[in-house]
Amino acid sequence: MRLKICFAPLLLMFMVTCFHTAMAQQNADPLTGTWKGDWGPSATDRNEVTLELKWNGKTLTGTVNPGPDAIPIETGSFDPNAMKIHLEANFAPRNLRYVVDGTVEKDKITGTWNHPRRKGDFQVTREVRKSESNPAPKPNLSGLKADEKKVVEYLLKDWRDGADDYSITSVDIAMDALRLPASGGTRFRVGNYLKNHPELDEVLRQWGWQTVVLTPNEKLVARAIVNAERDKQKSPGKSDLARLVGISEKESDDALRTLSFFGILKRDRSAGGVGYIAAAPRYVNWQPWLDFQFHRITLSSGRIFCVN
Amino acid sequence: MSLVSGKLSDQSVTVEDSSPDGTSRIRLQIEKGQLVKAEPSSTMVFIGGG
Question: In this predicted complex, what is the ipTM?
Fold first, then answer.
């Protein structure tokens, strides 16, 4: 009997806890908030977009790109069972009616859009308000030397603080900002660390380590080699490669070595020219990804960062 | 372009870019949201995508 009395409050607490959890899950709003991302007709032609969505349990309303040029969502619906949204909005300046269909998965919506003349895809991610977000856990950077840790910590801070600028600052820019010598060894070790630790930041998972680890010269050298392979052309020779990319032959050799170190290119003398080919089929058909793209922004204030 | 014409619209901005199908470098100079220089001169700048 005594045992039963002791258990009663515990059982009640357990039931209340379960009920609260179930209610919280049921009431969790999968849509309301600010969503940011990009849209476009192809993987290489993207435009930034912001969606402000409000879901009251029955009706989905909101605006596209809130501000002076906001476009109101005229028709909006959400199927919470299938987690599908449907939006329609009229872009008056061009007299175009956009129809958007997407699927909500946790804090991400992906889908397609079309208007009478074009179509494409989009992806947006829900912004977490700073007050709601947990502070970033301190990454475990064991195995890195002091300078290498500084570079990784600089990047993680820049990516997080610069999220509004879509900053995806690269390793060489971080090293320059920290006034570290342009040592290939430091960059190799930091690059290799980022390659093997995608859990460090969403930038690495979303854009790939290649985009932040390789320099513009290395990206252009990679392109010259893999695009020739893709187009079934002979690989460029040493002097041609340097001329194509606008760098010295030594810089071109250094870039080839780095690309080989990171497993992007591999030696194959049968390719002719400098004797390198893509180390994986993904790199021959790289353009769905942004591995070898760069968009480097320099502000008059001196700040340098990259965007995609 | 939406970044330089939005959040960075009061700044002098240099964008170093490249042609994705080739190895040509492209350099854009943007002053307060307005494109003032594009190198090489054959560069075609498309704004918007939809």
Answer: 0.88
